Amino acid sequence: MIQFNTVAELVKLAEGKELPIHDIVVAREMHDTQRPKQAILEEMQRNWEVMQASIERGIENEERSVSGLTGGDAEKIYEHRKGGYLGAAALSAAAYAVGVSEVNAVMGRIVACPTAGSCGIVPAALYAAREQRHVTDEAIVGALFTAAGIGMVIDQNASIAGAEGGCQAECGAAAGMAAAALVELAGGTPAQIANACALAIKNLLGLACDPVAGLVEVPCVKRNGFCTVHAMLAADMTLSGVQSVIPVDDVILALDTIGRSMPRSIRETAEGGLAATPSGKALARRIYPK
Predict the structure, then answer these.
(1) Tens-digit pLDDT profile for residues 185-196
(2) CB-based contacts of 265: which residues, under 8 Å, 6+ apart?
């Protein structure tokens, strides 16, 4: 039986068995669900297909959400990708992430990864990686299991819910998952995968969950784009040899501690942060007139 409760345990298992992290995660899933490996792999492949479809719809989407708060921004970013400061790779990834989140806002089909509010980050990072590195779908499915393993640990030891831990728990967790997956796709070691996760999460600690009018739109949609680029930088820093001084499991511990200490007003209640600004309140009154 393969079990792990921390990222360090996951890395130790992978190193000890001389296997990639995704094989350890798949083995645990086989044990926990009592399902054959092929069925588990096929389910993740279907998830990847949904992710791709939501990206492709998202970068062409001009439909606005029912609230009118979001829609059409992914297309704008994508059209600007060759003329921006960040370059085409990063801007494409940001467009993909915003697109998936806009598809979510218009009630399209997405994969909650790990949540609907952070649904664009992992798919966008992997879609961009496929374009850059020409990796196979099989490799991406493996990377998705690596991301899932990281998400499982975060969920066990902290939270992936904005209502519990703020957006650091949603977009922060997704950024850590995405960074880990990117390092695996680049041929990184299990230890490097853990390091990238630490870099991504620790630089999003304290991020409030403050949705305007209580909707997963502002600032959530654009935040998906920002956090995707953030995850890419964490991966690149790691692959360049940069080390996180604080190990990933301590970063996750800090994520939990900070989340518990956050005021209720900035944990998805729409009572604080951007939601409580004059413009945020005015938008809420427009959307929900008395």
Answers:
(1) 999 999 999 999
(2) 271, 272, 273, 276
